[in-house]
Every structure is written in C-alpha cells, then in structure tokens.
Hints:
Blueprint: E1 8-9, H1 24-33, E2 38-44, H2 54-63, E3 67-68, E4 71-80, H3 92-96, E5 100-104, H4 115-126, E6 133-134, H5 146-155, E7 159-163, H6 166-169, H7 174-187, E8 191-194, H8 207-215, H9 228-235, H10 242-246
Parallel strand pairs: 1-2, 2-4, 4-5, 5-6, 6-7, 7-8
Antiparallel strand pairs: 3-4
Helix pairs in contact: 5-7
The protein binds zinc ion (ZN) (2 copies).
One zinc ion binds at residues 11, 13, 78, 196.
Amino acid sequence: MEEKMIVADLHTHTLVSNHAYNTITEMAQQAAKLGLSAIAITDHGVAMPDAPHPWYFGNITKEFPFVMEGIPVLRGVEANVLDIDGKMDFSNEELKAFDWVIASIHSPLLAPITRLQANRLWSNIAENPWVDLIGHSELPQYEYDYDELTKLFARNHKIVELNANSCVVRPSGTENMKRLAKACAKNGTPVAVNSDAHSIYRIAQVENIFKMLEEIDFPQELIVNSTNERLLTELKKHSHPTAEKLEGVLK
Ligand SMILES: [Zn+2]
Ligand SMILES: [Zn+2]
C-alpha cells in the first residue's frame, strides 16, 4: 500500500500556489484519510511567479492550529534559493517562524551555475539553521559534488529530499537523483521521500522513488519519514521546535 511507504508527506502545495488546486483543510483531510501521521504544507516562497502574497506567510502559523482534521499539519514553506551565497526569499527571522522549511532552487529564479558555484550555494544553505530540507536538488544545470555536500548535510542535520514529482516534471534529473541517493546512503545522510503534491490526488504518491531506492538497496533507516520514530528523532536535531510540537500528537 503506497500510503504505508511514508508516514508524513513533507512537501505539498495548496491553491495559494496558483498551479495547485486544493485548500489547506482539504489537504489535511485527505492526508488523514490516507492514514498519514502528519503533512507539511509548503507553498512557494514569495519570489516565485505563482507565490502567495507575503502576508499569507506571516499569518499562517497564527491562523491555523498545529493539529487540523485530526492530524498535525506542519506550517511550512518551500523557500527559494536566489544566489550562490545562499540568499533566500525570506529573512532568517521569517524562516524561524515556520514549523518546517524547504530550500529549493527553481529555474525561473536562478540561471544555470557551475559545479563549484553550486557547491558554494549548498554549503551556504547547509549553514542556515532554519533550513530543514534540501528540496529537489538533482537538476543537471545545478549539479554539485554529491559526496562532499551530503557529508556536510549529515553533519548539519539537513535532510535531502527525494521528490516523486521531479521524475514527472524534471525528468532530466532522474539519473542524478539516483547518484545523490547513493551518496546519501554512503555518507549516512538522512533523506525524506515526498510527493510535492499539487492536489489531494497526489498526496503520498511516492512509489516511483521507492522503486528507485529498492534498486540501489537504499537503507530504510535513513528515510526520516518512513516511521514516526525516525521523524521525531531527526527533527529533535533541528532548530525549529517541531519535534516538541509533534510529540504527543503523532499517532
Ligand atoms: Zn519546487
Ligand atoms: Zn514544491
């Protein structure tokens, strides 16, 4: 059963990112119906053309309770990496307010860069205490040293994302994703397998990634969202106090 592959989908969009289609409440309802323990709502940071107004992000942690429709909803963001110095479209103070922060490169916002520049970019992101997840980082035009950087990610408690939607919308990165996953396995770097769902129908649809992980004999214990316990253990090492919020409400 695919809904048993992951216990929490940590990358999803709602209709405030204009090319996604459901509300937060609908996403929470569907995640609960699928039997997930938690879901993260991670709409596009303000620099993307389809992003919500900045006020949306300022209000989200105030307006929504942590537990909605019977399951914990991490009020997150998919922030954009804007340059090789690791500048993002939110200040650190703003990133701190979220339960969960993904840092992603999106091609409309960053021209192709060299491998050395990409190494520098991810090293800088790895130093940011408020980044939890390195979003879909396998695109060939932003290729980096997977071996070196996954070591740094592991040291700094950054989780590497394996994004099921990438295989559909960014297929040119599929081979790189496999190499990235192998580097994570070698260096003990935690990964999260996410849907990047843009509608309720795609939540927790991650079987393509699990097929790839099976092929390379990827160690299950490095997949942080494969059990509640692994998720809590990993989040306790992160700067956001999200593990504390999850403890007691994670079923
Ligand atoms: Zn993205
Ligand atoms: Zn996304």
